[in-house]
From TrEMBL, chain A:
Major place of residence: nucleus
InterPro entries: COI1_F-box, F-box-like_dom_sf, F-box_dom, Leu-rich_rpt, Leu-rich_rpt_Cys-con_subtyp, LRR_dom_sf, Transp_inhibit
SMART domains: FBOX, LRR_CC
Name of this protein: Transport inhibitor response 1-like protein
Localization: Nucleus
Sorted UniProt keywords: Auxin signaling pathway, Developmental protein, Nucleus, Ubl conjugation pathway
Gene Ontology molecular function terms on file: auxin binding
From TrEMBL, chain B:
A Pfam cross-reference name: AUX_IAA
KW Transmembrane (keyword) present: no
Family statement: Belongs to the Aux/IAA family.
Region feature (Disordered): 72-92
Organism, as annotated: Gossypium arboreum
Function per UniProt: Aux/IAA proteins are short-lived transcriptional factors that function as repressors of early auxin response genes at low auxin concentrations.
Chief location category: nucleus
Gene3D superfamilies reported in the protein's UniProt record: Phosphatidylinositol 3-kinase Catalytic Subunit, Chain A, domain 1 (3.10.20.90)
Limits of the PB1 domain: 189-270
Protein name (Swiss-Prot/TrEMBL): Auxin-responsive protein
Subunit structure, interactors included: Homodimers and heterodimers.
Length: 586, 270
């Protein structure tokens, strides 16, 4: 290695220095300093993150990073969580697994989000990677317990199997017995999304008993309450635990057994599950409450008094997920008891009801914002809001990094003044200078976007629905939000102008989703033609967009930057606009 | 719930006096100073409007010298941005070495001008609300009686929870956590009403967890507190889509499930 510069280091030294740099963003920055740093960095990058699986091809990734051990891939756009992306859109992981299977026998970790994973993919993983350790599937679908059986049977070094929020075809609970009796390396198991009436409890118990390093265990609803004691008895070292169904006939022996076993779990920091919970059994967890930092009660259909009692026992809580049964009164108690609270999510118990079924209003959110100095992340569903409340929240809690507010009825105005909520959200973006994620709701005009474009300089993700008056709104966001990476919009009167005037901005973002807006087919074609590094996908289940006049708005539009070019796995209702200035049919 | 009246027009939104021209994008001038976020004055819409008008009567962009030609776009001196000679099906893949990995911090380059927007007062064709109105009749905007698709933004498995009977008794002990197998994201409820003869209040039962008459009957017996001994004195009937009442055992399970609208337990006579 020739060293012309006085201050250059041998590769090994640089590699060693780079090994302390884990974050993806930092690694990318490092790789752009100069060509030799690019080269060194690419050989020693061990974790690869691909935020959009269609932005780059598997082969490109493998060619650039010859020695990675861990990959994280994300597939469908976020709005797929709410059924806005039709089934079959894409996000298939198989091509990635197939390429990696050939090139990377030593791959250890695969993390996927919103991708379609087939049993075939799982079988290929099980077969190809001898040292496979971590499989995290978040909001994925397309596989069954047969695929899981293959993983269980073959991956002798598996440490983590986490199926969070997946849709799994539950053919048989016996897949658990495919873990060989000699297998003991499990550290984390999350099967909370599985259905399966006939759960194989004995296989589960044996697995838990022999895996003495197990730290995280999240069971599914099918595991009855009286089985939990047996399972926990063999795993007092657990740090995170998710119950199954938390209801049973009230029997003192079952209760005391349960309470006893919880007391022996000295390391427990996180609890979840609690399906069908009945209040009588809740006190069984009181012994562990004082150490709890994370509590997920979002399936617990218990009322405010019981929630209040529970929450008052948890002074060290940092993260709470709960249904709106907690009500304003419960949130006030939370604000006074849990001074370490960092993240709060309040879900609606009756999202489709026309009238409020609980007494949860903006007051609860105000109380928590005022009372919890470390609160930085909020997801809150409610039925009314005021600018006054939002301004109070913003002023008292400028440290918000994630603020997602969903007022259930679209276009709801400030209930006190009947005005739009522009000023309230404007205050949020103005005071919360580190805001990275924002979801808007309620009655909003172009003005709120003006505020966002002016103040939300660190904003990376923005979700908009039923808001704005004209293209000006979209223009403010695209031209003002310097850090914007993901923008998702539905049912807003945004059309061609703002999009075309800010076309270059789209290349600096990961993706843009617009559905039920007013972007014409002609504009999509123009964008596709002129921007070769963008994939412009028109998703329309009504039929080919060219069967309608060009100025007709498209149903759904998904634009993302890509160096892999248009994809080839599109279903019949997706068209990509490219330089051919015509339609590309898949 | 307070809603804005449909006719109320927010002046800002109807603004047509802006001109988007070619050239560099400037950040918009600073907006309302912090003091104005005073609870006393925010309600004064006239004040805000007056302040805001200045901000909005840009020309947002100044005309730049050489930006008229689209082909002058420069991205990191890559000359391939304007060449389309490589065109044709599927061969626009860039060699990986050409394009640096995405520069998150790159300043937005000269605004790519794809549209010259001028002040056309009677531009009805461009009015987004008009276009929306024409084409918003398609059925895909609604979802089978549940209102808007994907709103409120609650994930599928959370929706399922909320159909749960809140008293969470033993009868629904073993509900599956997901609604469907592969791919399907059913949003229709699988609950039907059940009445028992002589009992004024109807109950609801989740059909998706039952796969046989035996299972269904067991659940119903428990639900209405009918002991095993008394089982024989009740018959299960159902109302089908045509409105006829039929005996449940007379049809195969599949037919029953597909055509039933509601259930009723009646006392069998004789």
């Amino acid at each position: 290695m020739h060293k012309k510069m006085a201050f250059s280091f041998p590769d090994e030294v640089l590699e060693h220095v780079f090994s302390f740099i884990q974050s993806d963003k930092d690694r990318n920055a490092v790789s752009m300093v100069c060509k030799s740093w690019y080269e060194i960095e690419r050989w020693c990058r061990r974790k690869v993150f691909v935020g959009n699986c269609y932005a780059v091809s598997p082969r490109m990734v493998i060619r650039r990073f010859p020695e990675f051990r861990s990959i994280e891939l994300k597939g469908k756009p976020h709005f797929a969580d709410f059924n806005l992306v039709p089934d079959g859109w894409g996000g298939y992981v198989f091509p990635w697994i197939a390429e990696m299977a050939g090139a990377y026998p030593w791959l250890e970790e695969i993390r996927l989000k919103r991708m379609v994973v087939t049993d075939e993919s799982l079988e290929l993983i099980a077969k190809s990677f001898k040292n496979f350790k971590v499989l995290v599937l978040s909001s994925c679908e397309g596989f069954s317990t047969d695929g899981l059986a293959a993983i269980a049977a073959s991956c002798k070094n598996l440490k983590e199997l986490d199926l969070r929020d997946c849709e799994v075809d539950d053919l048989s609970a016996h897949w658990l017995s495919h873990f060989p009796e000699t297998y003991t390396s499990l550290v984390s198991l999350n099967i909370s999304c599985l259905g399966s009436d006939e759960a194989s409890f004995s296989a589960l118990e044996r697995l838990v008993r022999r895996c003495t390093n197990l730290k995280t265990l999240r069971l599914n609803r099918a595991v009855p309450l009286d089985k939990i004691a047996n399972i926990l008895r063999h795993a007092p070292q657990l740090v995170e635990f998710g119950t199954g169904t938390y209801t049973a006939d009230v029997r003192p022996d079952v209760y005391s057994d349960l309470a006893g076993v919880f007391s022996s779990c000295k390391e427990l920091k996180s609890l979840s599950g609690f399906w069908d919970v009945i209040p009588d059994y809740l006190p069984a967890i009181y012994p562990v409450c004082s150490k709890l930092t994370s509590l997920n009660l979002s399936y617990a259909t218990i009322q405010s008094p019981d929630l209040i009692k529970l929450v008052s026992h948890c002074p060290n809580l940092q993260r709470l997920l709960v249904l709106d049964y907690i009500e304003d009164s419960g949130l006030e108690v939370l604000a006074s008891s849990c001074k370490d609270l960092q993240e709060l999510r309040v879900f609606p118990s009756d999202p489709f009801g026309a009238e409020p079924n609980v007494s949860l209003t903006e007051q609860g959110l105000v109380a928590v914002s005022l009372g919890c100095p470390k609160l930085q992340s909020v997801l809150y569903f409610c039925r009314r809001m005021s600018n006054e409340a939002l301004v109070t929240i913003a002023r008292s809690r400028p440290n918000f990094t994630r603020f997602r507010l969903c007022i259930i009825e679209p276009k709801t105005a400030d209930y006190l003044t009947l005005e739009p909520l522009d000023v309230g959200f404007g205050a949020i973006v103005q005071y919360c200078k580190d805001l990275r994620r924002l979801s808007l709701s309620g009655l909003l005009t172009d003005r709120v976007f003006e505020y966002i474009g002016t103040y939300a300089k660190k904003l990376e993700m923005l979700s908009v629905a039923f808001a704005g008056d004209s293209d000006l709104g979209l223009h403010h966001v695209l031209s003002g939000c310097e850090s914007l990476r993901k923008l998702e919009i539905r049912d807003c009167p945004f059309g061609d102008k703002a999009l075309l005037a800010n076309a270059a901005k789209l290349e600096t973002m990961r993706s843009l989703w617009m559905s039920s807006c007013a972007v014409s087919f002609a504009a999509c074609k123009l964008l596709g033609q002129k921007m070769p590094r963008l994939n412009v996908e028109v998703i329309d289940e009504r039929g080919p967009p060219d069967s309608r006049p060009e100025n007709c708005p498209v149903d759904k539009l998904y634009i993302y930057r890509s160096i892999a070019g248009p994809r080839f796995d599109m279903p019949p209702f997706v068209w990509t606009m490219d330089e051919d200035s015509g339609l590309r049919l898949s | 719930m307070q809603k804005d009246g449909a006719g109320r027009s927010w002046g800002l939104g109807q603004h047509r006096c802006m001109e988007l021209q070619l050239g560099l994008a400037l950040p918009p001038p600073p907006l309302i100073p912090i003091e104005t976020f005073d609870l006393n004055s925010y309600g004064n819409y006239e004040t805000r409007e007056a302040l805001g008008t200045n901000a909005l009567s840009w020309p947002l962009l100044k005309l730049g010298p050489a930006d008229n030609d689209i082909n002058n776009i420069h991205h990191h001196n890559s000359s391939s941005s304007s060449s389309s000679s490589g065109g044709g099906a599927g061969c626009k893949k860039r060699s990986f070495d050409e394009a640096p990995f995405f520069d998150e911090k790159r300043n937005v380059p000269k605004t790519l001008h794809l549209l010259l927007w001028t002040n056309q007062p009677n531009d009805e064709d461009d009015d987004p609300s008009n276009v929306l109105h024409e084409n918003s009749s398609s059925a895909i905007f609604k979802n089978d009686g549940e209102g808007l698709v994907g709103w409120p933004p609650v994930k599928t498995w959370r929706k399922k929870v909320h159909h749960q009977i809140p008293n969470g008794g033993a009868e629904n002990n073993r509900l599956p956590a997901v609604e469907n197998g592969i791919g399907g994201r059913a949003s229709k409820s699988t609950y039907v009403k059940v009445k028992m003869e002589g009992v004024p209040i109807a109950r609801k039962i989740d059909l998706s967890v039952h796969h046989s008459f035996e299972g269904l009957t067991n659940t119903l017996m428990r639900m209405f507190g009918i002991s095993d001994g008394n089982r024989k004195s009740f018959k299960l009937t159902y109302q089908d889509r045509e409105g006829d009442w039929l005996l449940a055992e007379d049809v195969p399970w599949r037919t029953f499930i597909r055509s039933l609208k509601c259930l009723k337990l009646i006392r069998s006579r004789g």
